[in-house]
Structures are given as C-alpha cells and as structure tokens.
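Subject: sequence -> structure tokens, single chain

Hey, anyone have a minute? Need the predicted structure for the following. Not urgent.
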Amino acid sequence: MTKEPILDIAQLAHIEIYSPKLEESVAFFKNILGMDESYRHGNSVYMRAYEDHYHNTLIITENDEAGLGHIGWRATSPQALERRVAAIEKAGYGIGWIEGDIGHGRAYQFTSPDGHKMEILWDVEYYNAPDDQKTPLLNRPQRRPSRGVPVRRLDHVNVLAKETKRNVDFLEEVLGFKVRERILAEDNSDIAAWLSVSNLVHDIAIMGDALGEEGRLHHICYWYGYPQHLSDVADLLIESGYVIEAGPGKHGVTQAAFLYVVEPGGNRVELFGDPGYQIFDPSWKTIEWKGKDLEKAIIWHGSNLPQEFFKYGTPVRAEKLVKN
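Reply:
Had a minute. Here:
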C-alpha cells in the first residue's frame, strides 16, 4: 500500500553560509551574481536574488572557517510546522525554538543525523522594493539589477554526509521529502540522492563524504533559467580573477546546465543555467543510476569533473584532501 504523503514542507527558504572573508564573499555575490543586500546585523549580511520573493535567501556570517550555518525550510502552514516539530522531536534530532531572525518569525531548529543544522518556519517577511527598484513587471519583486550577471532565485543546497542512507531516510520519513534520483553502489547502497518537496528535481541533495567527515557543505545553488548566462558569467568570472572549477556543462542527473565556482570565503557555488526538468507526477518512480550508466549520470556533456569536486567541501579538511 502506498504511504500517505507528508506535505508539510513547502520549499527551501534560505541558507546561511560561513565565511572567513565576509566582505569579499559579499562582493562576489553582489558584483558577480548581481544579488542585493537586504540587511546587515552583527557579523551577518542578508542577501537575495532579484526574483526571490522573501526578504532574504542567503545569509553570510563571518566565521573562522567556511561552511554551512543552517538551512531554512518553510512549512506549508502553521499547523504543518507543529506536526513536523513533533516528528523531529520524536526522532530525537530537535534543538528547540527560536523567536525568529531577520526576515522570518518563530522557527524550530534541529539537525540532520549527520549534524547539518536546519530550521523550519512559517511566518516570513516579503521583500518590498524601494521606489527606485520597482518594476512594471508586477510578478517580479524588483527590477533586474544592472551589475554582474544576475541570478534569479535560490534553487537548492547540496550537503555531504558520512552516512548517506541515514540522512536520506530522515528527510523522507521525518520531513516528507521524495527521492527523485539516486546513484547506487554495486551493493545497492546510496552514494548520492536528490530529494525535493516541490516540483523541482531537488531542493536538497545528499552525497557521501569522500573524506568520511560529518556535517559538511558541498555547494549552494542559484538559478538563471537561461543556459547562455553560464557563458556570460564564465567570462566575467575569468576576467575578474576567479577560477572556474567545472563547466559550463550538463549533468545527466537532474538534466541541469551547470557551472561551479568557489566563492572567496571558500564555499562552492553552483549556477544553474536551466531547471533541468520538473516533476508533476504524484507517483514518480525514483530514477536509479548504477554501473555502466554512471558516466552519463555525472556528465551528460562537457568536461569531466575534477577529483577535488568529490572530496572538497566546507569546512575544508586540507590534511585529508592531501592523503586522499
């Protein structure tokens, strides 16, 4: 019998990353990716893309080392929030309630089995553009920025885990995510999985940590919607002195056009040139990649990914990178 779906989480709301080079990181997202500062408070800068409807979708917090601060999920209702809190507490991963943060109200914080900090919230503040940033395109929160190659919205987050399946099971059984695609080892154990609560192929991905660490970040991703913008931003990145890690290219998994670059603070950023595909089938069968299919899963077309792509995450563990 098919399980009753859990429809209590609506979307990825925001991500906090840590940076030891706060102003350089902010400049990257602002001048290269065209994002705007929404607010500054203490050692944190709150930012958003021009088609993000919320007050902020990215928080950059100054810290001794790069990495993930937390991931914010928005519930589908106040009642849904309470249901997921009860499920998280029953599973034993709860931290507790906070009164809120810049851009959102009361939220419940918890961790994944691997230690990634997350929170679920309902009340949000919507972005209200000042007069000089309003646009006659009424379904867009603000006018398109005229600097860099502006990203349009937050897309997804990818985290590394010591135990992939344990974290995938938690997302499925406790939070209600659906596994859209997965890469399997020969013994059918999970190497990586792409999960969503929306029509996107993934709101979050879980990849096995090649260094055996816990709680690390692989990348965050912002969306363009047009593959041409990957070539445009590649020119800008190179001329501005940044090193492109991989791309432009296209993944087999998700079918997305991609480019990867490491921002000045040390965190990997993926840029999506198109959405890949979207899922509307309520009985979607998970796509499984294994064996001879793996080559096309990682790269459909474009150059191969460097080995560091599978090992590098934040916080950086340089000594293990060398050994491995």
